[in-house]
Amino acid sequence: MRSLRHITWLVVGFTGWLVLEAPAQTSPPPGDWLARATVLAAAPPCAPDVAAALDDPHWYVRARAIQTLGRQRCTAAVPALLAHFDHEDWDNQARLLVALGQIGDPAGLPLVAQYATGPAGTLRTVALAALGGFTAAQVAPVLATALEQPLNRDEKCIVARQIGVFRLGDCVSRLADWLGQDEELDRLIAVAQYRTGDQAAGRHVLEVFDRLDAPTRLQLLGDWAERPDVRATDLLLKVLRSDSPEHRLAAARAWAAYGAQMPIAETLTVLPDVDAEVRHVLVAALGGCPAEETVAAVIERLKADPPAEARATYLDALDTLDREAVTAALLAARQARLPFAEQALEKLGITPEALAARLAVPTLTPTARITLAVQLGQLGDLRAFDLLRQALLSGDEVTRCAAAEALGQLQDARAVELLLDVLDDEVPRVQSAAAASLARLGMTPARLVATLDAPNISLRTEALRLLGRLSDVTTLPAVAAQTREGEPLPVRLAAVAALGRLRHPDAVPVLVRLLSAREPALRMQAVSALGEIGEARAVAALLPLLRDPDAAVVGKVVAALSRTKAPSAVTPLLAALQHPDWRVRAAVARSLDAWEDTRIPPALAAALEDPSALVRFHARQSLLKLAVAPETLLPVALGQSRPRGWYGAYVTLQELAPESIRDELRRSLDAPDPKTRALAAALARRYPDPDMLALLWQRLDAETRFAVRWWLVRALADFGEAAREGAMKRARSKHPRLRADAMRVLGWLPSNRESQLVLREGLADAENQIRSAAVEALGRIGDVAALAPLLARQSGAFTVAPDELVDALLACGEAGRAVLRQAVAGSEPAIRALLLQRLGADGHPDALPLLLEGLRDASPLVRQAARQGLARQSDERAAQALAALPDEP
Predict the structure, then answer these.
(1) What is the number of H-type helices and E-type strands within the chain?
(2) Using an 8 Å Cβ cutoff, are 475 and 501 in contact?
(3) Gene3D superfamilies in the record, alphabetically (predicted)?
(4) Residue 512, SS3 per DSSP
(5) What does the buried/exposed string (b/e) look like for 13-40 if buried means 16 or more CB atoms within 10 Å of the residue's CB?
């Protein structure tokens, strides 16, 4: 795309030089040539008089006409400019080249290209610079030719700049030979390398950024706005304070491109120092950062008591952020008596008077009323407590629950007694909300212990739960007393849970006695509590329970032992992997990843063959968490002789890729069983080294089974660019099978011009398998232009299977679907039916009009295909059309 930015330096430099050369011309004859030239500067765009001035007898008038036409980008004048080129002196010829570059019309490119690749001299230098006005596709071959010629220092700089401007990746590698010749040239080469994807060159670009010209700096800032570079953070901060408004704004957009990863602290530091336009971009970008983190950072800046202008900036920023997070932070700041909080709250409309007015609205919902009451309370208004107390009397449990939660946010001591009463509410949800608020209000252990003598079971249960959460060891005797025989079961369970939360060894004897309780729930709760404590005596008490006849109890014991991570538990747990109940075995397999013991991986490997799918799943997950893959897994993964275990072994080896199996895996690629060879190829993908690459190519050359070759192709494709040379070599092979496989490999690799050409040639090959492979590969790389002509052929004229062609076009995305939609109208019924069926199965809504039209087709085959396609559409119109249709035989 042409841009004035790309050729500004050209216009300023060469045009200025040419103007300075004007005195060297022969003295003009007397006449009105100066007036004629002056008039041209004010001429309307592409005025006929300007083009006519190209025939003026005075060189200066012609020069001004050429410059005016170039500046106005007058495409219509290109033929005239070309026609006059050979009749001008060299300086006007230079102006003509500049003008053609400014216009950028393809008709002017051949002349510019001719001189850009011609003999050394001023005109070649000017022509190379004029290439900046054309497109990348037009310029690339010209620059490639220019690189073959000896160039002077200025020409090298121009070529390096153009390669960077147009991002010509195929040319940039050839600039490396010029490094070290000149500092400016090195800078331009670094920019070209960086803009064509070489991230390593980014460091040099960042170092020399200040010495680059203004258009290049703007170009890089624009690049960072599209593809952020975290290394440019310090540089962007510097540019944000630069003198150029254009550069400041571009830097702000690049800074905003960091999105949620944008450095919040640095943004807030620079925010007060920038102009309004830049500040608007930065403030808007803050909205994309994590809300709570951003609000907290702004509050911290306001706490530092910044100057008035900075404070106003930060308050304006708060006004654009998440209102809920800002309100909560400002109310907390007010409670901390920070001076800015009142001003900010007023700006947001959160004042006692405003809140009271909103609370007076009769149609306000209970939830909204409670939210406003909490805000009122955080502003220090005593009316908030009375409002929440009234809400607790509501007959609606949701309102009571919300009020109980809100009381915990007030930090009002009067709420404690009220919440203790709410613990007696008949709804467990309200009880839980009250208990959470009490914990938030810092209910004291002494008060909770006193509550244990209350007759209300729910009150005692919640008090025990809170005592457990408080983890105050001084309450252990009182809590342990609640576990005695005769107490209600809910109280005993809560007391046992609280003892576990206390995590103190003195609770172990009490819990051990409860392991023999009659109630299974109490035994299981005691098991969990012992696991929470994790002391040696607790582990010793848990181990015998692995033999309990109740599988649920054993499962609890296993989970508890895994929390202790006691080495003495490993042996009994490994034995429990043979327990007859699958639930126990699954619990053990899931818990064994808590230990690092050499006996565990082999046991888990054996568990991959367990009859229970859940046991096999947990065994596999534990092996992956331990990151250990025993060598015994490879025969299982490759042989498939044991169907229960092979998948788990295969997935484990695929994820971990252990070095210990590499040699055996290489030998398995030559196994007599094709299934073994295919699975070995699939696993070989995880060993991307040159030796494995060479072996895979060797096996592909010799392999005859398609399934094995498919996995070999996938494995080779995972090697990326390292596999391209081998693929290109085999794509020219005399053996059709090798050519087809090589094309499939190329389809998985990033496309380049050479591989695309090979694949397109494959479409015309005499071998079906090669054409099929080429179609598949072109679909993967999205080459719609090569595939679309194939679809224009009908019936017997197809050179590839229509299904394969449709698959490839669908793989091309929206462009491929568009080709398929366009082909429907002119196709034969059978092809039309296939297209409608596949477009409908694709599910894209753009196919809906074609499917509806297909219901009226004269061919029953097409109508049936349209029905099938409509059934896959989610649009309501498709369902209505199907419902309105009569049943067809």
Answers:
(1) 58, 0
(2) no
(3) Leucine-rich Repeat Variant
(4) helix
(5) ebbeebeeeeeeeeeeeeeebeebbebb
> Angle at Cα 116 formed by Cα 115 and Cα 118, nearest 5°?
55
Other CB atoms within 10 A of residue 477 CB: 11
Stretch (H or E) spanning 524? helix 520-533
Residue type, 257: A
Written in H, E and C, the secondary structure of 816-883 is HHHHHHHHHCCCCHHHHHHHHHHHHHHCCHHHHHHHHHHCCCCCHHHHHHHHHHHHCCCCHHHHHHHH
Q: Which residues contact 268 (CB under 8 A, 6 or more apart)?
A: 297, 298, 301, 314, 317
What is the spatial distance between Cα 331 and Cα 317, in angstroms, rounded to a whole number?
17
Class of residue 413 by CB neighbours under 10 A (exposed 0-12, middle 13-18, buried 19+): exposed
- Contact call for residues 711 and 744 (beta carbons, < 8 A): no
Element holding 481 (H helix, E strand): helix 476-481
Say whether pLDDT at 13 is over 50: no
Structure tokens at 484: 């005695």
- Closest to 374 measured CA to CA, from 314, 440, 308: 440
In angstroms, rounded to a whole number, what is the distance separating the alpha carbons of residues 289 and 259? 6
Distance of CA 605 to the CA centre of its chain: 35
Q: What is the Cα gyration radius of the chain?
A: 39
208-233: average pLDDT: 88
CA distance 248 to 261: 20
State whether the Cα torsion 147-152-156-159 is positive or negative.
negative
The number of residues making up the chain comes to: 889
Report how far residue 562's alpha carbon sits from residue 664's, in angstroms, rounded to the nearest whole number. 35
Q: What percent of the chain has pLDDT over 70?
A: 94
**By the 8 A CB rule, do 331 and 372 touch?**
no
Lookup: tokens for 580: 């007859």
Query: Is 233 exposed, middle or buried (CB count within 10 Å of its CB: 0-12, 13-18, 19+)?
Result: middle
Q: Which two tokens stand for residue 733?
A: 């092979």
* Rounded Cα–Cα distance for residues 537 and 539 (Å): 5
pLDDT digits (tens, 9 = 90+) for 342-397: 777 877 777 888 878 888 888 888 888 888 888 788 777 788 888 888 888 888 88
Residues 6 or more apart whose Cβ sits within 8 Å of residue 26? none
Q: For the segment 458-490, what is each residue's pLDDT rounded down to a tens digit?
A: 888 888 887 776 667 888 888 888 888 888 889
Per-residue pLDDT tens over the stretch 406-461: 888 877 778 877 776 787 788 888 888 887 887 777 777 787 888 888 888 888 88
The dihedral through the CA atoms of 441, 444, 445, 450 has a sign that is negative
This prediction's pTM: 0.47
Count Cβ atoms below 10 Å from residue 255 Cβ, excluding itself.
Answer: 27
Cβ contacts of 172 within 8 Å, gap of 6 or more: 163, 164, 192, 193, 196, 198
Helix 323-335 to helix 340-347 angle, to the nearest 10 degrees? 150
CA 625/CA 619 separation, integer angstroms: 10
Where does residue 235 rank: exposed (0-12), middle (13-18), buried (19+ CB within 10 A)?
Answer: buried
Closest CA relative to residue 836, chosen from 813, 818, 854, 859: 854
Give the domains, in start order, of the chain with CATH numbers: 719-824 (1.25.10.10)
The two three-digit tokens of residue 586, written as one number: 């699954």
